[in-house]
Amino acid sequence: PLAVRASSSVTPLSSVPVKGDSQAERLRSGTANSCDPALRPIIRRRARSLPTSPERRKQAGVQRRVAACEGRANRVRFADALGLELTEVKVFQTGEDPSIPLHVLSRLSINSDLWGSCLDLEFTMQYLVPDFQQPADCMDFSARLREQQVCLERVTSSDFGLSGTIQVCNIAFEKQVSVRYTFNQWKSLHEVRAHWHSSIPEKNGQDQVDVFTFFLPIPSFLLQLCSVVQFAARYQVNGQEYWDNNGGKNYSFTCRNYPLKMPRECEESWIHFI
Asked: Where is this region: Disordered (predicted)?
């Protein structure tokens, strides 16, 4: 019995847990009773290697965009200032040739001539020249207008045809103005209607005058050397008919050739005409 008592250990009073000790102190000391459940801290400190929540959202968005880009091919879209499409896809079937405008073909032929030439870059262009003085520049224009009730004012030529203006005396509200023209010395003729443009009020005792505009389409294949376009103005009002045919000679334009020289460094600039 004495040996048993000597071998038994006595626990110091300082190591016995006190009822008022906190759980944190018992965890630090490691002297919690074996009957108590294992306690873990409620708040855990975040590891420094983990990104913050905004950073995780940013990285996830970048990954989604990269995955979307890898899953589709890159595309280029052309749009104007309003966001409308500038391109149009046209699929041509076998044997279906695209329609190319005549003015594009003519410019391409000129460009090929310039490319093949090794000397002077010179070519000729065809244009229509008036065989009369512009009526509005004549001193007797007002007198002719009062006498004929209709008079051609001015005409200009372009690659597509002739455009001009006609003045008529305002005899009545209902009126019709037209231009009759021909390419083959009146063997056949054509007529286009002029459209009202503006009115000139009365001044210096003259009646009110109406101004009409017209356009004569001229096909490019008819523009041959020395070919002539003739026309006259026609005015119908109150059941009457008045003409301005340049004193019986008719107004005419003649096709002429115009030589044009161009420096070689500008030969590629013809692409801008297409």
From this structure: 1-34
First-to-last C-alpha distance (Å) of the chain: 124
As given in the structure block, the two tokens for residue 270 are: 């013809």
The length of the chain is 274
pTM for the whole structure: 0.51
pLDDT tens digits for range 124-181: 777 788 999 999 999 989 899 989 999 999 999 887 889 999 999 999 999 999 999 9
**CA-to-CA separations, 236 to 176, 189, 193, in angstroms, rounded:** 5, 18, 11
Summarize pLDDT for 221-265 with one digit per residue, the tens. Answer: 776 666 889 999 999 999 999 999 998 999 999 888 777 666 555
- By the 8 A CB rule, do 219 and 184 touch? no
Integer Cα distance of 97 and 62 in angstroms: 48
CA distances 235 to 135, 188, 256, Å, are: 17, 21, 31
Q: At 144, give phi and psi (nearest 5°).
A: -65, -40
Which is nearest to 175 in space by CA: 112, 242, 117? 242
CA-CA distance, 114 to 108, in Å (whole number)? 10
Query: Tokens at residue 86, please?
Result: 């500038």
Q: Which residues contact 245 (CB under 8 A, 6 or more apart)?
A: 232, 233, 251
* Domains of the chain and any CATH numbers: 127-257 (2.60.40.2440)
